[in-house]
Write a structure and sequence with these properties.
CATH class: Alpha Beta
CATH topology: TIM Barrel
Order of helices and strands: HHHHHEEEEHHEHEHEHHHHHEHEHEHEHE
Structural class: alpha/beta
Strand content: 5-15%
Distance between the termini: 56 Å
Helix content: 40-55%
Number of domains: 1
Radius of gyration: 22 Å
Number of helices: 18
Strand order of the largest sheet: 4-11-10-9-8-7-6-5
Length: 406
């Protein structure tokens, strides 16, 4: 063919110069297309001990790896030739509408991940209509977290996650404060009679707050902004105690009550008249026991793999748990969820909603409040796309026939 010099009119449509993004946080978040991408940014942006506290699990981390492997190995069963131009993500949780079919799980020491901490998570949750559970071990008070959510929306869905202490009067005080602050539901976590063996934390010497050792001083040189934010903002304020100096495991073993039994749910009901969620159930027998004791919802969870290693994979229990309790108690699930597709699979098997923790924490570490919002945007977009590709127009139309487990 005869060669020629191309005309500018022919080249112009091919030129796709993008407007530069000068803000480094916005640039990093825009490039993150998955929760895994946010995890990679978080790993670079935070000290190793902080990242490992969020990312790690107990002992050999078998429980967490099994949960994630199950999500990777399951098979979706799509149906074609359906009108999916519009899909409905709303569902009902605890008798109230939920804008998206997932919740922000309670996480401890959140201001260590990023100095904006729990208020940033509460604001994003309120803006997007996502229920958010504040942890007993949170690093922002019950009242301040509630105020952060209400600054964005007049009636955010806030839940308070409770660990029962050896000193029951402390638990009574926390429940009273949560009620006074307008928290909708109480989430009792029952899988921490003692702390799990989180070996990454032990090897890193992770403590609350971080100790200024030779190791952490070296780390300052590689993460100066994180340390500057920690040291120049307000000291960590726990949701449930004034301060602590020591390891996480020591704190849990000192405070939490290992003598609590199923009979104590009646005591808890006597001081809390709102919805009661029990989190950390791992067998069908316990699903039935907790339901019979009056729980409004049960969360199938092995604490993100952070307590007993080689525990059951929560997602595998969902269909049998739903059959066991019927409409008496809602069945929720967590552990290992890293995508909107994972959430859709949980819902298809019968879970009413799914809880995500690490997913939004990776976003928080990657970019503060904007990172949490990006994590929510990624999950919601993936849920909507997965529904369309499955040929499903609404969350409520999902059935176990849409998923095949290995």
């Amino acid at each position: 063919m005869k060669r020629r010099v191309p005309r500018w009119s022919e080249l112009a449509p091919l030129v796709a110069l993008k407007k530069p993004v000068w803000d480094g946080v916005d640039r990093r978040l825009a490039a993150a297309l998955t929760i895994g991408d946010l995890r990679a940014v978080a790993r670079r942006r935070t000290p190793r001990s902080v990242f490992d506290y969020t990312d790690g699990a107990a002992e050999a981390e078998v429980s967490l790896s099994r949960a994630r492997r199950l999500f990777g190995d399951l098979e979706f069963q799509p149906s074609v030739l359906h009108d999916v131009i519009d899909v409905e993500l709303r569902t009902q949780v605890l008798g109230l509408p939920e804008e998206v079919p997932y919740c922000f799980a309670p996480t401890g020491f959140t201001r260590l991940m990023h100095h904006e901490g729990e208020p940033a998570v509460a604001r994003v949750a309120a803006q997007r209509g996502i229920p958010y559970a504040l942890s007993t071990m949170g690093t922002t008070s019950i009242e301040v977290t509630a105020a952060a959510g209400r600054a964005v929306a007049p009636d955010p869905r806030l839940w308070f996650q409770l660990y029962v202490w050896r000193d029951r009067s402390a638990a009574i005080d926390l429940v009273a404060r949560a009620k006074a602050a307008g928290y909708e539901a109480l989430m009792l976590t029952v899988d921490v009679p003692v702390a799990g063996a989180r070996l990454r934390d032990a090897r890193n010497g992770f403590s609350i707050p971080p100790s200024l050792t030779v190791k952490t001083l070296v780390d300052m040189s590689t993460h100066p902004l994180w340390w500057a934010n920690l040291l120049t903002t307000d000291p960590l304020e726990f949701a449930s105690l004034t301060q602590w100096s020591g390891t996480v495991a020591d704190l849990l073993d000192r405070l939490f009550d290992p003598t609590m039994t199923i009979d104590d749910l009646a005591w808890l009901r006597s001081i809390w008249d709102g919805p009661l969620i029990v989190k950390g159930v791992q067998t069908l027998d316990d699903v039935r026991r907790v339901s019979d004791a009056g729980a409004d919802a049960v969360v199938l969870s092995n604490h993100g793999g952070r307590q007993l290693d080689r525990a059951p994979v929560p997602m595998r229990l969902v269909p049998d748990a739903v059959d066991a309790v019927g409409d008496t108690t809602e069945v929720w699930v967590d552990t290992g969820i890293m995508s909107g597709g994972d959430i859709v699979a949980c819902l298809a098997l019968g879970a009413r909603t799914a809880l995500v923790g690490r997913a939004y924490l990776y976003g928080l570490m990657a970019g503060g409040e904007r990172g949490v919002d990006r994590a929510a945007e990624i999950l919601t977009t993936e849920i909507r796309r997965t529904l369309r590709l499955l040929g499903v127009r609404a969350i409520t139309d999902l059935t176990p026939a849409h998923v095949r487990l290995p």
